[in-house]
Structure formats: C-alpha cells, structure tokens
Specification:
Layout (H helix, E strand, L loop, with lengths): L4 H14 L3 H18 L11 H13 L4 H20 L29 H9 L7 H14 L5 H6 L1
Helix pairs in contact: 1-2, 2-4
C-alpha cells in the first residue's frame, strides 16, 4: 500500500519534538509546508515523487525567489525523509528519485560577512566616552569577536 508523504512528515516531526530536537522539527515543518504549497494537495504519495517532480519543485522554489541555501535545505530534508521511509519499508528503493537529481548543484555556501582587520582596528580605536551606550555595545562586540564569534545569548548567560 502506498504511503502518504505528509503523514510520514508528521511522524518524523513528532519524533524530533519528543527527542527535544525542535530545530530539526522546524526544518521538516517548513519543508512540509513548501511541498503542500507546491502540490496544492494533502495527499502526496512517495511513489508520486519522481525526478520530474523534483525538477518541477525546484522550479517552483526558484519562482518563489528562495535563496539557493533554502532550496538546498528543503531538498536535502525531502531526501532524508525519503531515505527514512525506505529504511522503515514504507516505500521501495526502486522509487528513489534522488539517484539522478543532484542536490550538490545548489550553491549552498553562505556569503562571508567577516570584517577586515582594518575595520576591527577602527572599531577598537574609535574614541567613545565611557558613559555613551555605544561604549558598552563596542565592548560586547569585541568580546564576541575575540571569543571566536560567541553569540550574544551565551554572553548574556555568562
């Protein structure tokens, strides 16, 4: 009996929530939502997902104006879901559509946003009166920078 993709999404999302992996659950929820938007249906079977389906889904995501990284995440998530379905014997391996569809073609590299050493020196040497709120902001920034990018939540917890 063919298995419903969205029902399996719900099972996997539930497993992630139970395991406390809320971030993973959210990625699966987002992917499920985009697939529902693409298919305009609640009944999608694993056997419906073919290479043509994946190509059309990619075109759909591009038309939405998604970044390459977002498209790669959605497609990687769908691929992972398909792999889990095969492992759990919900779909046969011969229906696997990712043999020919290459996710690595997406430019998933995040553009570097680091500042230069010269810019850092300017921030360090900028004359700011200690009473100015910018002085404290600069101290937090420099602490984060020299702490190898420690995020501000972790700084606050320290």
């Amino acid at each position: 009996m063919p298995y419903l993709v969205f029902a399996f999404f719900d099972q996997i999302i539930n497993r992630f929530v139970q395991a406390g992996k809320v971030g993973n659950a959210n990625v699966y929820k987002d992917t499920k939502g985009s697939l529902k938007l693409f298919t305009s249906s609640t009944k999608l079977l694993f056997t419906d997902i073919s290479q043509t389906f994946l190509n059309n889904y990619e075109i759909f995501l591009r038309r939405l104006g998604l970044a390459e990284t977002s498209m790669a995440v959605y497609l990687r998530t769908l691929k992972a879901l398909f792999n889990k379905a095969i492992q759990e014997k919900l779909v046969q391996l011969n229906y696997y559509p990712f043999k020919e569809f290459n996710i690595t073609n997406f430019n998933a590299a995040t553009q570097k946003r680091a500042i230069t050493k010269e810019e850092l020196k300017k921030i360090e040497n900028l004359e700011i009166y200690p009473a100015n709120p910018l002085s404290e902001a600069r101290q937090y920034f420099l602490f984060s920078y020299y702490g190898q990018g420690i995020n501000f939540i972790n700084i606050a917890q320290l």
